[in-house]
Design a protein that fits this description.
Helix content is about 30%, strand content about 25%. With about 500 residues, the chain is of the alpha/beta class. It folds into two domains: about 5-90 and about 140-235, P-loop containing nucleotide triphosphate hydrolases (Rossmann fold), CATH 3.40.50; about 255-490, P-loop containing nucleotide triphosphate hydrolases (Rossmann fold), CATH 3.40.50.300. The protein starts with a strand and ends in a 5-residue tail after the last helix. The structure holds adenosine-5'-triphosphate. One of its GO terms (molecular function) is ATP binding.
Length: about 500
């Protein structure tokens, strides 16, 4: 099989950081090729180079054996490659049709022909079997539909190579299956794909080959059938790792988080829950179950229509984050880019924000104390960085996620709400994040862990399963995967 896309001996530096060090990848025509590596291994940097957003300092990119176009020739790049990112590149205030034909409106004279535009968009969506209304506002689409529009847009430019960068991070089980069906169909049509994910099972299901990067270097490329799971993990981490062992504990008697009669229209109805100090309660359910909306209500990001929330003995003001934080809550939001950290501030500043008052006097923070705390957090959570002064915006996605958790844990919270804490986090870092949550619970926090990952939920003392906005079952520890999934899919109550 001929090589469709190749990066050869690529080096890329950001100041003192070497993001790629003579690394490369060769992707055969028509295959789905996984790119794996721990957080900060250099995957996103390679994506930006393969899509022509950045030039390598050294090395070259080839498409079908020919040198890549000049960076400024965006059209030439669009005909060769497209990337579906975890974060959408679609403009929410425009319609689907406008998004599809952005920058290439069909004009007659200088007027945009809206009717023709909508018709072309409809044809294009039909051609790729995407069941989305062309005149809908893109901002109203769900993650799954949005991804399909992005794939159709990529193909419509003529690209035969698509990069999927953690596409399943925000999809629930059935949506992931539908994405895989579509990927298989695209592959049958000869489309070449590069697939980035921290879910190794997905790689075995959907990819034919795998390349692993570690510390900015290429480590191995193999057919997936020839690289068993433990060897793959060892290639990523540089050592053999064992599965995470959930710890057992006895919850206390005082109540850390309680909610009664909570309802929010179109999200969830009549929810009551009670989490004791030293107890870890999971919240599970499919995409439309209401679990994230409920968790966001507990932390004050949303305001329920009815009901009350008490955190650590204080009735908190509805829809008011400072009130919840003031009562002793720490939280990790779903959308860490909007709510999780301040990109221009350093790791030390971000991670110690809630405890700034404890690190100095009279409104000033002693830099040495802040640094010391931050150095400890970097070590505890295994954050890959130049040091505590590096801005969080420069960290890889997974490492930025760890800073958000460090911040949530920094003030020894009495109550903790974490939403999908391990999304985008590598196989080894997952263990340190789960360990950090269990540590906080052992120190007495009452915690709610919302997750789409069964492996995360396994550390919980019990799991509340939501279905269509209601808590349908309280499942004690010791469940099997099929049992929990059946409840999540509404097959058993
Ligand atoms: N703009 C930048 N400025 C400074 N350093 C950067 C920048 N972009 C990336 N880096 C650094 O380059 C290294 C590689 O990062 P990259 O984002 O490619 O990792 P990744 O493999 O995609 O990780 P993740 O799985 O967490 O997304 C990291 O150490 C990161 O901090």
């Amino acid at each position: 099989m001929s090589v469709h896309v190749e990066a050869r001996n690529v080096t890329k530096r950001f100041g003192p950081t070497v993001a790629l060090n003579g690394a490369g990848i060769a992707i055969a025509e028509g295959e789905t090729h996984a790119l794996l590596g721990r957080n900060g291994a250099g995957k996103s940097t390679l994506v930006s180079i393969l899509t022509g957003l950045q030039a390598p300092d050294e090395g070259e990119v080839l498409f079908s054996g020919e040198a890549a176009p000049a960076l400024a020739d965006r059209d030439a790049w669009r005909r060769r490659v497209a990337c579906v990112y975890q974060k959408s590149t679609i403009i929410p205030t425009l319609t689907v049709a406008e998004n599809l034909y952005l920058n290439r409106h069909q004009t007659s004279g200088r007027l945009i022909r809206w009717g023709a535009l909508r018709r072309s968009a409809r044809e294009l969506l039909d051609r790729y079997g995407v069941d989305v209304d062309a005149s809908a506002l893109a901002g109203d689409l769900g993650v799954e539909q949005r991804q399909l529009v992005e794939i159709a847009r990529a193909l419509s430019f003529g690209a035969r190579f698509i990069i999927l960068d953690e596409p399943t991070a925000q999809l629930d089980g059935p949506a992931i299956e539908r994405l895989f069906e579509r990927m298989r169909a695209l592959r049958e049509q000869g489309v070449t794909m590069m697939y980035i994910s921290h879910h190794l099972d997905e790689v075995y299901e959907i990819c034919q080959s795998v390349t692993v990067f570690r510390d900015a270097r290429h480590v191995v490329t193999r057919p997936v059938s020839e690289l068993p799971h433990d060897e793959l993990v060892a290639a990523m981490t540089g050592e053999a790792t064992t599965a995470y062992q959930a710890r057992s504990r006895t919850p206390g008697t005082s109540v850390a988080i309680s909610a009664t009669g909570l309802s929010l229209r179109d999200r969830y109805q009549d929810v009551a829950l009670e989490v004791r100090a030293g107890e870890l309660v999971g919240l599970a359910g499919s995409g439309s179950s209401g679990k994230v909306g409920l968790a966001e209500t507990l932390v004050g990001l949303r305001r329920a229509d009815t009901g009350t929330i008490v955190i650590n003995g204080t009735a908190v003001k509805p829809g008011d984050v400072p009130s919840a934080l003031g009562a002793g809550l720490g939280f990790v939001p779903q959308d860490r880019h909007h709510e999780g950290f301040v990109p221009l501030l350093s790791i030390a500043e971000n991670a110690t924000m809630p405890i700034a008052h404890k690190l100095g006097r009279f409104g000033t923070v002693f830099p040495s104390r802040r640094r010391a705390r931050a150095v400890q957090m970097i070590e505890d959570l295994d954050i890959k960085t130049e040091g505590p002064d590096q801005p969080v915006g420069d960290l890889s996605g997974g490492n930025a996620q760890k800073v958000v958790l460090a911040r949530a844990l920094s003030d020894s919270p009495a109550a903790l709400v974490v939403i999908n804490p391990t999304a985008g986090v590598d196989v080894k870092a997952k263990q340190s994040l789960l360990g950090a949550v269990e540590d906080a619970v052992e120190r007495g926090a009452g915690a709610v862990l919302v997750s789409d990952e069964l492996d995360d939920l396994r550390i919980c003392d019990r799991v509340l399963v939501m279905f269509h906005g209601r808590v349908v079952k309280d499942v004690p520890r010791g469940w099997s995967d099929p049992e929990l999934v059946a409840v999540m899919e509404g097959m058993e109550e």
